[in-house]
């Protein structure tokens, strides 16, 4: 049974399944083509589980190319009836993801800013609205937006690792759908304070605030993620998927309804000289730190 108003969401898995059955050769081709320059996908069709590893040195920043490859990989998995769950992790030591790539927002054309922001939207819609079970295995620092978009977050227990949405530190503003995602995870007050300050929370604090669900020793992270995913996959897919849709539909619909408006707002805001100056200043600060 599907609640009123959710029929389109509830029918997605059925549509994808019928498409896959009509084109079995396509499934095989997709299974062989999951690795690309910045994303490595390991699919265990027998278990129905894919591990998506970020491999874009030095820090897995969410560049236009990275976002495009991630979205393509996710869409292939979403359309593969053999895949029911995904674990996101990093193949690069000491960083899960540094977040939005500042170089994509600084000194470029307005057309580039629009293309970049559409790629960010597409990535979030793909993860937050996925029919698959999504687990973030945060084996290092960063990646807050990706992690918040998942169903469950497990982080390596290391006080040197941190996570948060630090847009305000860059002089930019987290959009409403970043905010909505954060509020849904940690509540309004914690999200308000954290977003205003652009706080990056150490792993123990992230657990205390509810940004992550569990901390485990680094060496046990992947095994724990697999065990949690197995628990979620033990449930009937349709019941879990419909429940997830009910919980997330209003947030997803809000972006879909205002998608182009959101792009134009981002472009006009980012292109302001005051914002460009803030971004250049932040990039200079990062360069000095590296030096």
Automatic annotation (TrEMBL):
<comment type="similarity">
    <text>Belongs to the enoyl-CoA hydratase/isomerase family.</text>
</comment>
<dbReference type="GO" id="GO:0005759">
    <property type="term" value="C:mitochondrial matrix"/>
</dbReference>
<dbReference type="InterPro" id="IPR001753">
    <property type="entry name" value="Enoyl-CoA_hydra/iso"/>
</dbReference>
<comment type="subunit">
    <text>Homotrimer.</text>
</comment>
<keyword id="KW-0496">Mitochondrion</keyword>
<keyword id="KW-0007">Acetylation</keyword>
<keyword id="KW-0443">Lipid metabolism</keyword>
<dbReference type="GO" id="GO:0004165">
    <property type="term" value="F:delta(3)-delta(2)-enoyl-CoA isomerase activity"/>
</dbReference>
<comment type="function">
    <text>Key enzyme of fatty acid beta-oxidation. Able to isomerize both 3-cis (3Z) and 3-trans (3E) double bonds into the 2-trans (2E) form in a range of enoyl-CoA species, with a preference for (3Z)-enoyl-CoAs over (3E)-enoyl-CoAs. The catalytic efficiency of this enzyme is not affected by the fatty acyl chain length.</text>
</comment>
<dbReference type="InterPro" id="IPR029045">
    <property type="entry name" value="ClpP/crotonase-like_dom_sf"/>
</dbReference>
<dbReference type="Pfam" id="PF00378">
    <property type="entry name" value="ECH_1"/>
</dbReference>
<protein>
    <recommendedName>
        <fullName>Enoyl-CoA delta isomerase 1, mitochondrial</fullName>
        <ecNumber>5.3.3.8</ecNumber>
    </recommendedName>
</protein>
<dbReference type="GO" id="GO:0006635">
    <property type="term" value="P:fatty acid beta-oxidation"/>
</dbReference>
<comment type="pathway">
    <text>Lipid metabolism; fatty acid beta-oxidation.</text>
</comment>
<keyword id="KW-0413">Isomerase</keyword>
<keyword id="KW-0276">Fatty acid metabolism</keyword>
<keyword id="KW-0809">Transit peptide</keyword>
């Amino acid at each position: 049974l599907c609640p009123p108003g959710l029929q389109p969401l509830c029918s997605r898995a059925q549509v994808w399944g019928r498409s896959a059955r009509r084109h079995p050769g396509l499934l095989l081709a997709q299974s062989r083509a999951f690795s690309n320059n910045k994303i490595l996908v390991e699919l265990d069709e027998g278990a129905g589980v894919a591990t998506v590893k970020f491999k874009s040195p030095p820090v897995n920043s969410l560049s236009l190319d990275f976002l495009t490859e991630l979205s393509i990989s996710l869409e292939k998995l979403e359309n593969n009836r053999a895949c029911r769950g995904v674990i996101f992790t990093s193949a690069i030591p000491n960083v899960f993801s540094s977040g939005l790539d500042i170089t994509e927002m600084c000194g470029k054309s307005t057309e580039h800013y629009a293309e970049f922001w559409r790629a960010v939207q597409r990535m979030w819609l793909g993860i937050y609205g996925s029919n698959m079970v999504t687990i973030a295995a945060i084996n290092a620092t960063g990646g807050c937006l990706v992690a918040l978009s998942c169903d469950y977050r497990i982080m390596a227990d290391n006080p040197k690792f941190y996570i948060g949405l630090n847009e305000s530190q860059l002089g930019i503003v987290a959009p409403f759908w970043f905010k909505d995602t954060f509020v849904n995870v940690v509540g309004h007050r914690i999200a308000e304070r954290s977003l205003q300050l652009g706080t990056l929370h150490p792993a123990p604090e992230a657990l205390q605030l509810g940004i992550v669900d569990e901390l485990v020793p680094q060496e046990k992270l992947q095994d724990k993620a697999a065990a949690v995913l197995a628990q979620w996959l033990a449930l009937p897919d349709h019941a879990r998927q419909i429940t997830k849709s009910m919980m997330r539909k209003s947030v997803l619909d809000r972006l879909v309804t205002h998608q182009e408006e959101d792009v134009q707002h981002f472009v006009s805001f980012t292109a302001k000289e005051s914002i460009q100056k803030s971004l250049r200043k932040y990039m200079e600060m990062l360069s000095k730190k590296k030096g």
